[in-house]
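Q: Fold this one first, please.
A: Sequence and structure below.
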Amino acid sequence: MVGAGTAGTAAALFLARAGHEVTLFEAVPAPAAIGAGILLQPTGLSVLARLGLANAILARGARVDRLHAVTHSRRTVLDLSYGRAGADRFGLGLHRGVLFTELLAAARTEPRISVRCGVTIEAQRRDGDGCTLTDGEGGTHGPFDLVVVADGARSRLRSGHVGLRHAKEYPWGALWFIAEDPDESFRGVLFQVVERATTMLGFLPSGFGPEGRVPRVSLFWSVRAQEVETLRAAGLGAWKTRVAELEPRAEPVLAQIEHIEQLLYARYHDIAMRPWHDRGVVFLGDAAHATSPQLGQGANLALVDALVLSECVASHDTLDEGLAAYSRERRTHLAYYQWATRFLTPFFQSGSRTLAVLRDVFMGPLCRMPVLRGLMLRTLIGVERGPFRAALPLPPNALPPPV
């Protein structure tokens, strides 16, 4: 396994528990619980339940029952409630570090997994029936029967893969900050304010984080990559004023941001690849299909990748057959979410006045139309595969509510 993120570590756990010996390589010498807030969907939570980690994750997360986006004039753009998809369905706002910590801790205690931190894998080559990896110091590792590449959107091993179609950066990204929210001003709702297709402010309840018992909220501010330094050079004053104008409840959050460097920047990527396997190698998570986070599905798709890979390997006589089955199984699901993300993102991040007007006029009413609302909810939950294909089965609703 190359990369101890969500996809790599979850896949390591599934495969190790199926009886395989696994080596998990991570480039960071001392991995820490860092990152912004993420939204786990019922699909992702069901995979974590299969790993026995759902209760620990739920205890540190914040239940999200609704997505609500409005314009700066408070016209509704998007309003979706999980409850319409089934009794007690919900999303879970979570500090990414919580998911990372729980997965890695489970991997460290799994006897069939050897965790190797501080090893940057730079290349891989086929040697007969196995694959040998080369690290940044020139050392070699292997050969291995299977290499799972899960080293993120900036994967070092993706170049030259037979299935790679393109790997590029979006012109947009987001500045983010995780703040304490003791009054839970944003409880239960992923809330966004948009203005034209150039401004998007978001607030995601994010649970307690890796430590402590104070509720937190993640603030996101959409920005073009080329404008990040200009914004930082202008200082906090003007930006804070703008955020407070768009959402007055943000004042306590803004009071915790004292230096512009506290606003961290995340760049979006668009990775298109198919198939996701070659002989003895398979790509998972953002290394295989990174997108704009407009639909908030990154961690959920990565978890489903890990589960499906383990099932395909287990249910076929040879590894090559299992990997081919994996690419077939993931094709329609991943294709739909990549298409939907590419379609929707310009309505929120593009600078297009026309698309912004169409969004503001039509998207709110569309949310109230039963057929389209059902499609939107299935997309949100993570089970949609396209309007002319059957959705994935809804995951079992056996999860307790978060504490």
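Q: Good. Now the second chain.
A: Here it is, same layout.
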Amino acid sequence: MNRLTQLTLPVILICACGGEQLSQTWQLDRLRILGAKVTPAEPRPGEAVSFESLIFAPEGVELETVSWFSCLPVGANNFGCDLDPAILETLFEQFENLSEEELGQLFGMLFAVQGDIASLPDEPLYEPLKAAYYAGFSGFEPDFMLGWTAPEDALDGLSEREQKEGLSAITTLTAVPTNAENEDEFEIAYKRFPVSLADTPNHNPTMDILKVDGTMVNEVFYAESEKSYTLSPVLSPDSVEDYDYVTPEGDIETRTEEPYFLWYTEGGSFNINFSLYPYSKVEWTAPKGPFEGVIISVIRDRRGGMDWEAIKVVVE
């Protein structure tokens, strides 16, 4: 069993966030999972989804991999998806024993079918991968992401109202730093997202850019030591959606999303690190220079949708 396998398999059994709590929630001073995006944000049964993570790793910490596992509630425990480690162990052992030609054939076929695992041929070469995928293995970042397909029968047995409301699927992601010696050094998070037949399914919001004192910043912002600035996110016009909400009585109400923003930084401080749309501005005070770091804003739409934007900050 290779080192990656030895580090990853315990994750299936242990699902609790690693690391100690920060003195301030907005401080970026350790490995942290800040976001997990599912696209589409609210799939229908039989629809495939892709995943994207937002992970902060401080200077000196490198990621070896980020693993993803997904399931319906029936396949979850209190901490995330409950998977059989033997299935992944079989897959890893196969990878170790395949020749370069066989690995090339496997990855070539994956590329040819655009990640559609169901369309892989029924041949021994692909069986361990298909078994792992159907058990909930959604891949490793950055080079082996498979995604997840909502089962065709995910909503079977539910009433029409319940099908429109849907149920919450779960994806669990684990960031494994290079040279980690045990699972205590992993960072683990899980995200719930709806699978439904909603007439107005959710879509991820889009944060186009961040403004500093009203000026758009594309990549790098040069700040003055210990000076305060107003930060504001810019969203795409369609980021705040109207949607149908089915009440417990079965009535349909039209509601408007109420997005909110979480703010993070490596240095300096915020007057608040939580803001509500449309009053989404916050004040950030630069640290004493010299300093180089990032500011990150994460938007959530309260229905599982998510996006983020980051800028580099330099204080000379």
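Q: Anything worth noting on the second one?
A: The chain has five helices and 22 strands.
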